[in-house]
Design a protein that fits this description.
With 208 residues, this protein is an alpha+beta fold. It has 3 helices and 11 strands.
Length: 208
């Protein structure tokens, strides 16, 4: 009987060891697959196509827990592509923001940053609000981004003056927003100007 009990105990130990091995194996495989997918998407990341924007919206709504009422007012105002993804300026009631998303070769859309918010000082008087994201950011460290929303109807274009002398200008008549992207350039030290219908400076701010 003692021998029989010992055999049963040994068999139970073997079964438990096998079960533990199977569980560990499953966890390892799962973790490995997730890591490979992440590396693949990052290494082969691409800009979003127009067909990906609906997927982007759905994922954004899920991450931000956007209500049904707010979803009806959601609008994509402007986009800017770089070689490894797309910056997306969007409008939500009291939650205008900038996002960064990437598309993998398998068609999967991943939002690296869902909500870079703008610096609003006064909802009733700010003609333009901006967000400066320096290079080294977690979402896409290669680039510095300057984005903004234009609320004053008389401003038709935005000009950015960088400290190295480079100027960039964008018409905002229809988008009512702008996205400027520069590789490895700190966008926190620039001057932003808004020009009215007559071409004269209407508004300016220093992002420092």
């Amino acid at each position: 009987m003692v021998a029989s009990r010992l055999r049963r105990l040994a068999l139970s130990a073997v079964v438990m060891a096998m079960s533990s091995t199977l569980v560990v194996g499953c966890n390892t495989v799962g973790g490995g697959q997730a890591k490979v997918q992440s590396v693949e998407l990052t290494g082969a990341a691409q800009p979003l196509s127009s067909a990906d924007l609906q997927t982007f919206e759905d994922e954004l709504f899920r991450q931000l827990n956007v209500s049904a009422n707010q979803r009806r007012d959601f609008r994509i105002l402007d986009t800017a592509n770089v070689e490894n993804g797309t910056y997306i300026l969007y409008a939500l009631p009291n939650n205008d923001a900038l996002a960064f998303a990437q598309r993998g070769k398998n068609g999967r859309v991943v939002i690296r940053e869902a909500r870079w918010t703008f610096a609003v000082t006064d909802d009733n008087s700010d003609p333009v609000v901006v967000k400066a994201v320096p290079p080294g950011n977690a979402a896409n460290p290669k680039y510095g981004i300057l984005a903004g929303r234009v609320y004053n109807p008389y401003i038709e274009s935005i000009e950015v003056n960088y400290r190295d002398g480079k100027k960039m200008r964008q018409d905002v008549t229809h988008t009512r927003g702008f996205i400027f992207v520069r590789k490895a350039f700190d966008t926190r030290f620039v001057q932003v100007r808004g020009y009215g219908m007559n071409g004269n400076p209407y508004w300016s701010i220093d992002t420092r």
